[in-house]
Amino acid sequence: MLGVGLHLSALGRPTDALPPAEQAVILYRELAERYPDRSLSNLGITFSELGRAAEASQAHQEANRLMPPGAASDPED
């Protein structure tokens, strides 16, 4: 859904782009209930691509908070 919204926006159709982008946000929120650390990060990316920086930051911060200890570290270190 997000891809459809982004393509419509790139075609100069922001009004048409909003509903599929909002649907993508809804789907990411549903996934976040099951896989919070991964899906909240994706939700943050979605918000960022929609130009909603404050919501993107909040989703990324929440994803980082929920991430299991050591999950963000590089396994090669």
UniProtKB/TrEMBL annotation:
Protein name: Tetratricopeptide repeat protein
SUPFAM superfamilies: TPR-like
Annotated region (Disordered), positions in chain: 54-77
Pfam family, one: TPR_12
